[in-house]
Amino acid sequence: MIKITPTSEAVKFHNEKVNEIFDKLISDGYILRNKKQKKICKDFINFLIKYKDELINALPNRLLEIHEEFEMKNFSKHQIVLIRSFFIQTGYGKFQNKEFLNFLGIDTCVYCNRNYTLYFGENNARAELDHWFPKSEFPILALSFYNLIPSCHSCNHIKLNNSPIGGWKNALNVINHPYLDKNDFKFSYYYNSFSDFNLNINVKMNSKSNETLKFNKINEIYSAHSNKELNDLLSLRYKYSDNYIDILVNKTFIGTPFSKEEIYRMIFGIEIHPEDYHKRPFSKFKHDIIEELKQTKKY
């Protein structure tokens, strides 16, 4: 839903931390627990040495190719268990999510833009990262930069038993990737009365954006809020004068030093530039609806 533009600080932080994790495995032989496993680990470590830099920094298309090359190695079930353990439990388990998100500068869920990315569980706040290629199916991509997506707990959970048409190996052709694609759609609404209104989403049918919205259940998520967030905005438009929103936004703060961005932030609690939507929940939703309301005549 929100396109991510990587910051150089996030790339640098990620590169340093993941290199440390990989280098420790290569130099210390993390999973060389006994002589029996030495050959198992040597084969995998050679693979890791060959693809280390790409596993850290490669774009999603290349990551998928590396995963397919990994599968062609035909590692045994026992080997896969060891490899998964390193990448998921040891590697990703030690990765500093919160610091990474701070450098990336993404504050709300990339998929829904309705929740912040901090998740409060077990009496602690922790940063939530989704693996676009699920780490259960693509364990060697568990630490790859372009596979780490700032997410809320709810959207991360949606993917547990859900996959795109054709499965995850076909996903780049079906749904938008937050680092690669811009989602082309607008929130809208229909309104007959205060007891008869609902959310609409204007999006091109049979497009990747449409499939992305369906996959992430955006219509269901935002429809659940329509009696609150949407109702509040409609009330401003249909209970007051035709130009009430225009007065709020463009007339109330005349002669003050406040910018348009600051005014929208104070009145509606949102950002109005697409590149800033991630900073505050519901920014795209409210901005799309407000712009439509400003142009709509009363019935």
Structural description of this entry:
- The protein has helices at 8-28, 38-57, 60-72, 77-94, 97-104, 153-158, 171-174, 208-215, 218-223, 226-238, 244-251, 260-268, 283-295; strands spanning 118-121, 124-127, 129-131, 148-150, 185-193, 196-203.
- The protein has 299 residues and is mainly α.
- The chain has 2 domains: 8-174, no CATH class; 185-295, no CATH class.
- The strands form 3 sheets. A two-stranded antiparallel sheet has the order 1-2. Strands 3-4 form a two-stranded antiparallel sheet.
- Helix 1 packs antiparallel against helix 2, helix 1 packs antiparallel against helix 5 and helix 10 runs parallel beside helix 13 (283-295).
- It is elongated and about 75 Å long.
- Report the span from N to C terminus: 32 Å
- Overall body shape: elongated
Largest sheet: 2 strands, antiparallel
**Count of alpha/pi helices:** 13
> Structural class from helices and strands?
mainly alpha
- Provide the number of structural domains: 2
Helix content: 40-55%
Compute the number of strand runs.
Answer: 6
Strand order of the largest sheet: 1-2
Rg over C-alpha atoms, rounded to the nearest angstrom: 23 Å
Strand content: 5-15%
Q: Overall mean pLDDT score?
A: 85
- What oligomeric assembly is this protein in? single chain
Q: Which stretches are poorly predicted, pLDDT < 50 over at least 5 residues?
A: none
Secondary-structure element order, N to C = HHHHHEEEEHHEEHHHHHH
